[in-house]
Amino acid sequence: MSRTAIFASCAKMPEGDGDEQAVSAALDDLGFTVRWAAWDDRSVDFADAEVVVLRATWDYPERRAEFLDWCESVPALCNPAAVARWNTDKSYLVELLDAGLPVVPTTLVEPGEKPDWPRTPFVVKPSVGAGSRGVARFGADAAGAEEHLRTLHADDRTALIQPYQSSVDTQGEIALSYFGGIYSHAFTKAAMLGSTVDPSGLYLEERVAAAVPAPEVRALAEDAMDTACSLLGILRAELLYARADIVRGEDGDPRLLELELVEPTLGFRQADAGAPLRFASAVRQQLA
């Protein structure tokens, strides 16, 4: 019996960035018929699909309320709407930090608020954003940071301030992908600040390569998964996918930069040939 799986995307990138090319074949082998559809395409009956997988919905930052309403309307959404609501606002990092997780220090600046600017290099980014759009690095130039903050606040957007992790310049960051709550593979990403914008305008292009995480990095990713699921009141197995982005702090210890649960590139092109099979099996598990 054939089952329908829809990969949700957006109008500017209707079939994602090509990372899932091998996934469709793996799902096909398990009896799924896979197709792509923009999440806001009103001609598509998402409620009729056995599973709808959030994959390339990268235009949601400008329409988050509408996007979350759509998520709530899809019964078989992976990851679920409650996860999307929590994870599409990077203020979740403060929750993880408050729970004792070693997260890159994060300060929220609501519209109308004025921060105490760091005395070391730092990054300012919107709390709701994707693809590193709106992310800027500053040194001692508080004037430049204030202008960037004003631009974000003018759009009624909350900002995040984080100390810049200098290890990114030499080591980049490492991303660990999980399927059904179980580790699959990892890949490194070079620093994206100042990188070229993809022709779609939705994300910055990045240099990636396969990687093997160090034990302490793997342990932090596992702790991040456990802590997030505890805050959400779900089991790890209820997450079809997750990606933990980790960098080294100034002391050399790993720090969580982000825990992506909504639309991250999962690095299939940098993974072993078994990764698409593991993902397909995790999709099947969600239906069980």
From TrEMBL:
Gene3D superfamilies (alphabetical): ATP-grasp fold, A domain (3.30.1490.20), ATP-grasp fold, B domain (3.30.470.20)
Keywords, in A-Z order: ATP-binding, Nucleotide-binding
SUPFAM superfamilies hit by this protein: Glutathione synthetase ATP-binding domain-like
Signal peptide segment: none
Gene Ontology MF, one: metal ion binding
Keyword flag Nucleotide-binding: yes
Ranges where the ATP-grasp domain occurs: 93-288
Top-level division of the source organism's lineage: Bacteria
Protein name per Swiss-Prot or TrEMBL: ATP-grasp domain-containing protein
